[in-house]
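Async update (no meeting this week)

Hi team, since we skipped the sync, here's where things stand on the single-chain job. The sequence we agreed to prioritize is pasted below, unchanged from the tracker. I ran it this morning and attached the output directly underneath so nobody has to dig for it. Comments welcome in thread, and please keep replies under the output.
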Amino acid sequence: MVTRQSRGGRGNGRARSRRTSSRRRVPLLRRLSFRRRGGGRDRRRVPKPAVPKGDVASRGRVLRRRWIAVLSVVTVVGLAYVLLFTSLLGVRSVEVAGARDVPEEQILDRAQVPDLRPMLRLDTGAIAERVAEIPGIATVDVSRSLPSTVEIAVTERTPAGVYDTGSQLYLVDVGGVVYKEISEPPQGLPEFSLSEVAPNNPETRAVIQVREALPEDLAARVTEWRAETPGSVEFTLRSGKTVRWGNADDSERKAQVLGALMTRDGKTYDVSSPELPTVS
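Output:
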């Protein structure tokens, strides 16, 4: 009897132990499951950091500035291409102003302005140099008149006399430039009887300076200029009288003395020394 009770006691003890172990496991599993589910929910519900409204507006302004900068560059490049490499603003007409004795056709032929060349790429300096090669042209100014016109303004040389080389006659302008071959001397122009006529020639420069100092009415009566040296300028008047001027110094004073001296009869009037003028 005792032995049965002992076995039965052990059996009851194991049964109680299983029940106790079973009761303990259930709460542990539930806790673990709850923790896993809770942890997952916590990860999904983590809120993203909010972007301040000021930062959003600032980013928008930066993007707008970048787009404006890109569009500005594209616009400038496109405009430059149109102006420099297309005929939209190309040459379509050429106007000449100031031409009198030189034919306008001659100026246009020498100018060689390329048709439809973009105005901003036009070499106005080269055009002016070509036109200036025409003998009768003293100065040239070439300008652009947008959208499509080139203007060429010229100043022709003013003839001041005739130069006879012995084989050919040439016109001489007021600067001493020999510029045009002629067959007959124009009426009213004096002859430059010098060994050489050129702007850098000393005798030519002296004659030009004296001519500029004379009163207009007196200069218009000169028929011939002579000068063997820069200090021996003299000229002949239409009346046949000769004036010895000397050098170009003190020309204003000499002109005044000559005006008074011409009231006296004579053939030669010497004012090379205005303090001691002579008539012979």
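Quick observations from my side:
The first strand starts at residue 93 and ends at 97.
Residues 58-88 form one domain.
Reply here if anything looks off.
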